[in-house]
Predict the 3D structure of the following.
Amino acid sequence: MLFFELTNRWTKRCRGLVMLALALSVSSVHAQSPNNDPGDNDESGNNIILTIDASGSMWGRLDDKPKYEIVRSSILTTLSQSSVPHSLGIVSYGHRYKRNCEDVELLLAPTPVKDANVPALLRNLQPRGKTPIAGSLELAEKTLGRNRNQGTIILVSDGIENCRRDPCQVAADLKKKRPGLRIHVLGLGIKVEEAPQLQCIAKNTGGLFRNTASQRELTAALTLSFASVGPRLISKPRLQKPPPPKKTGIQLSALFSRTEKPVEDGITWAIFNTNPDSTPDAKIVKEFDSASPLVELPDGRYFVRARFGPIMQTKEIAVQTEQLTNEVFRIRAGALRLQTLRIKGGEVLGDVTYRVYPLEFQTGQNIRPVAQLTGISATFRLPVGAYRIVAERDLARIERAVTLRSGDLIDLSLLLNEGTLSLSAKSRPDGPDLNNLYYSIFETDPDTYRATRMIARTGARNPSFDLPAGNYIVQVVHGEAESQSRVTVRPGETTEKALLVRSAELRLSSRISGQKSLITNDISYRIFDLNKATESGGLEVLRTSRPEAVVHLNSGAYRVVSRLGRLNARSENTVLLQPGEQKSLEFLHRVGELSLKLVHENADQTVTGVFWSIRTLDNQEIWRTSLPSPKFILRSGRYRVIAEANNQRLEKQISVSTGDKKNVEFALK
């Protein structure tokens, strides 16, 4: 019995030691596994960062809707119709500032979709600025999480980078940093010549690229992008696959005719069942924007069109079963890549309009350009020939002639040699900046400094102009006051010019003597400059019929006449104005209102065909009218009223006092 008890205890102890050893062994192996990085199991690495283009071009329209509204609706539709178990983050660019390449912002850190108020975030996005795609990708990658083997960015953009960075290279660098990263690129109405840059981003990270042209297409592409998200480990070596079966179709490629160099970008292909050159409504069977597509087609005859810029070539090609037809197009064309600098070695300018004309084009001719683009840079694909390049930005312009041969890729940096002119105006040197100004800028004759033509005008406060280097005359007008000055604009510099307008403000109002309220009807003012003497006592500089007029005048002495009605109700005053001064003049009118009527003696009936005359007692005529029952305002005093009708002449003397409303009736026998 004792033997069995000892044996049993020994067996249990051995079993416990064996289990402990196994546990330690497994723990040791697990701890030493080189692939057991805590980050590998970090679910945050499987986040989705949606990167949204909110640059100024998103105001453009597709399907008769603004692009930014299409993007907003597509995102909300996709999130409402799809099951997205991953956390979603949102990065946007170009939505805060007009010309800032650093305008990239994280709007939403990775958050479960059900907890994120995505509609409110998208509703607040208003397109405004530039397109810093590279910077937005870098911020999106930082937001993905610490797991380098997972993570997805979905970029939605309607154009390419315009902030002097290479997003294609940035995508490649991010892929090295985070091997599991994929960037899906969804274009919205991308131009054919811009597609390669965005394609390259997706290609360098193993992502999808779709160029959409409607809300329906964008929603479908977003749904596909979300559906493709899932855990991804570092890829393992692929097993050898058996050779593919022989294909039926066409291998397309293009060469430049002179150099025989392959056309690597900027070419598009379209395949038709009928000849598009003779059938205007020929339908496209397939189309591609890659440089050398392999197109699988059933056997038959097809028409293939290659387009490189404005150049189109069409060939008829026969396709036979299990045969791959190699077809090479030879293109007689080249490419121009243009950018514009403010000064040599200076910044690259944006918002430049580039136009390409035939070489014989001269400035001022009404000839349409053969190509035109606006942006920070421009790439033109053109037939061989001689051209004149015109670059314009605001008021600056430069022209260059260039000859393009087949296969040429010519890079041109154009120098505008422009500077900035900033303007302000004061009425006195120590005074505040004035409002309600009009600035005009005139070119000058370099020999006489005389103005030749006006090139710009604005009513903005403290405006700035980008101008070609040179001499100008600046005129500023403040009401009736004005001043002008010569300025020199130097390349690459900002010239600040504060103009001195020796103006003053004069406020005018009128009322009838004994009344508190101001006159609001039938009042007018005339202002005479006593600094400019004339035989009548001064040069008239302004007339106005505003009841409470506010005028701006050059400093000096003035005579102001207030007139009520159309007769002799006048009041005048003189005023001396100092620069920057604000003065008020109130005119008192001592007047009464007079109504006239001529009736038959035996009938209360107004007589027509009457001529009225109002005269002073010394027989000076004030007014004459043929109105049957006139009503008018007269200055206080005594007058003779004469009525003439039916060869009869009637006359009365009347007295008009301030505030009177007098009716005078004549009876005709």
Remarks:
- The first helix runs from residue 2 to 32.
